[in-house]
What we know:
- The complex is a heterodimer of chains A (277) and B (276).
- Chain A is an all-alpha fold and 277 residues long.
- Chain A folds into two domains: 7-63; 64-276, no CATH class.
- Helix content of chain A is 77%, strand content 0%.
- With 276 residues, chain B is α/β, with parallel strands linked by helices.
- Chain B has one domain: P-loop containing nucleotide triphosphate hydrolases (Rossmann fold).
- Chain B is 33% helix and 25% strand.
- Chain B has eleven helices and ten strands.
- In chain B, 45% of the residues are buried.
- The interface between A and B is medium-sized, with 24 and 32 residues.
- Bound molecules: adenosine-5'-diphosphate (ADP) and magnesium ion.
Amino acid sequence: xxxxxxxxxxxxxxxxxxxxxxxxxxxxxxxxxxxxxxxxxxxxxxxxxxxxxxxxxxxxxxxxxxxxxxxxxxxxxxxxxxxxxxxxxxxxxxxxxxxxxxxxxxxxxxxxxxxxxxxxxxxxxxxxxxxxxxxxxxxxxxxxxxxxxxxxxxxxxxxxxxxxxxxxxxxxxxxxxxxxxxxxxxxxxxxxxxxxxxxxxxxxxxxxxxxxxxxxxxxxxxxxxxxxxxxxxxxxxxxxxxxxxxxxxxxxxxxxxxxxxxxxxxxxxxxxxxxxx
Amino acid sequence: xxxxxxxxxxxxxxxxxxxxxxxxxxxxxxxxxxxxxxxxxxxxxxxxxxxxxxxxxxxxxxxxxxxxxxxxxxxxxxxxxxxxxxxxxxxxxxxxxxxxxxxxxxxxxxxxxxxxxxxxxxxxxxxxxxxxxxxxxxxxxxxxxxxxxxxxxxxxxxxxxxxxxxxxxxxxxxxxxxxxxxxxxxxxxxxxxxxxxxxxxxxxxxxxxxxxxxxxxxxxxxxxxxxxxxxxxxxxxxxxxxxxxxxxxxxxxxxxxxxxxxxxxxxxxxxxxxxx
Lengths: 277, 276
Ligand SMILES: Nc1ncnc2c1ncn2[C@@H]1O[C@H](COP(=O)(O)OP(=O)(O)O)[C@@H](O)[C@H]1O
Ligand SMILES: [Mg+2]
């Protein structure tokens, strides 16, 4: 055993953990769930993805250069922006850039405050702090942006006639869609607000668990978790707000009209693609 | 046969003769609404793929001030699309639409929509009371508005003002929607099948109302309808649209007495079923 306080997992231990997969696969087989293939692929991906990330993070931590950290943050933000629109049922065209920018905005503001003002990390780019904290901020911002986009799209479809009636009376898009915007923002913030209500009662948050396992005192870990909860709330709120205003520009034309993308739904991307080529 | 609502008495000739407007030959004369070579192609879903469909093809006509134009045609002929382009809920693919001589695409779109009111087939309610609905337009611009006065115009009792809009009957809601458009003091009123969702009595009330607003306020009205008795009851002029093309344009009396085209004749006899 080396100097650190916690138990290390050897490669042999990792292989033993495969027994869990065996149990999962057996249940699927017995109950004819037909999930064996997915379980196998999922297992391989879990191994490959996490081992790769571990390798990359190790290099990042060893190098400890600000530009590698900034590059990592940029990649994380872009992937999050893409994921936020990936499952959007309707048109994606123009949304990816918008969600990425919203996540960058919400993420940057929160990260600067946490790293620079609350934790006062020196030097600021110390990957040990920046990367995990950014991961949580960006991950939650991603969910917020996705919820805003999805909800806004369905609210517009649902309230179409009311919105067009308002537009026809001379309302600007932001006014005509005020109800839809409010519902979208609420939908994006609810998970965060709910988790602030129940945190610690049902399960311990991942980061806190990790800190405790690696030897931090629970009292210390809890302080970190409080900061994390509040920063996630702020990041989600700022991202959701930015994404809501971005969505307004995507789903309405400059002449305050509902965009035809609303009617074409998932066919919009193919349509725009064909028109551009 | 249903009892016909009170007929509108004047035609454009009467108005010109009364001297309220310059003659139509006067170069200074600008129609309330004028369409010049308007076409609209839009992407529509056909089955599982998107097709560019020409919905309106090279339509030109003009609506003199103070007229009630009945825009008629089989369903799917592009009437709603044409109407929606007049207050820019949609834009033409080519051609030009003018309001009193000014290209509407050069106007501020919100001011355009204030000047050109619109009422839809199914009353679209804004959340809140009748008063909230009626004063919506003026409040947007920070102007005062007496919602009671607007209700008077459409003959709705003032004690409805503080009811939720959803508590009204559909006929009352439709009149409230007209009052809501009137609160903006529009110069032109667009009505998209305003009577189609209503029973006969409520429909007649709306038709009477349209006539009265036109007569008393000189409001220019464009009313889309597929119901010929409703077009006949209020229209002073008629445009017949079939498959996105203008087939006939003229005085309502002449059109209903004897259509100029074979298609027009067949349409009046109900032989043109829904086109696509
Ligand atoms: N959302 C849509 N999906 C498919 N086709 C549409 C859609 N909107 C309009 N169209 C087509 O455009 C044409 C004109 O529609 P519309 O203006 O609503 O006609 P009208 O009001 O005369 O019934 C129709 O032939 C219709 O097929
Ligand atoms: Mg229609």
